[in-house]
């Protein structure tokens, strides 16, 4: 079901999260590589083959949704709800679509669901990536660091539940 979001004072985005299948794997890999390229190149770790293999090794279509914004495919999100805390394993927005509030709208949808179920959410971000500021700005708190990643947690918020 489409959602209208007006995150951060930007004009409203009509957000739709669409199911994926195994047949979508290569399209998802392409989005992931495009979205991560700049950050990985800055670290000298851009390796499309490795990025593809790592994604495909853990890809579960049931947990993954294409992100459409105003009817245009803008990226994808892969959220694993089977664990506590939930794992936001992937959230990638195409570089040309970034900066429009789409990622924030996706997080708002995820947060509404997580808060309704009192589920914390964890996420990892590549060290040096702009995604670290993005997740911190949206309420994630740094919990630990690894060689290449910084890990964050967002606790559920109390409040009205619909």
TrEMBL record:
Cited Pfam families: Acetyltransf_7
Highest taxon, organism lineage: Bacteria
Protein name: GCN5-related N-acetyltransferase
N-acetyltransferase domain location: 15-158
Source species: Burkholderia gladioli (strain BSR3)
Keyword set includes Acyltransferase: yes
Upper taxonomic lineage: Bacteria, Pseudomonadati, Pseudomonadota, Betaproteobacteria, Burkholderiales
Any GO molecular function: acyltransferase activity, transferring groups other than amino-acyl groups
Leader peptide range in chain numbering: none
Entry keyword annotation includes Transferase: yes
Keyword vocabulary terms for this entry: Acyltransferase, Transferase
């Amino acid at each position: 079901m489409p959602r209208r979001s007006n995150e951060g004072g930007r004009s409203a985005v009509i957000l739709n999260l669409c199911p994926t299948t195994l047949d979508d794997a290569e399209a998802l890999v392409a989005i992931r590589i495009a979205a991560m390229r700049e950050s990985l190149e800055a670290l000298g770790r851009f390796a499309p083959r490795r990025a593809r293999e790592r994604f495909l090794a853990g890809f579960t279509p049931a947990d993954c949704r294409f992100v459409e914004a105003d009817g245009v495919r803008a990226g994808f999100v892969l959220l694993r709800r089977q664990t506590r805390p939930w794992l936001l394993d992937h959230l990638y927005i195409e570089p040309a679509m970034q900066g429009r509030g789409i990622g924030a709208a996706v997080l708002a949808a995820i947060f509404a669901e997580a808060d309704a179920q009192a589920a914390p959410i964890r996420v990892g971000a590549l060290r040096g990536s702009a995604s670290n500021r993005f997740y911190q700005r949206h309420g994630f708190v740094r919990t630990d660091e690894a060689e290449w990643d910084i890990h964050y947690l967002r606790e559920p918020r109390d409040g009205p539940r619909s």
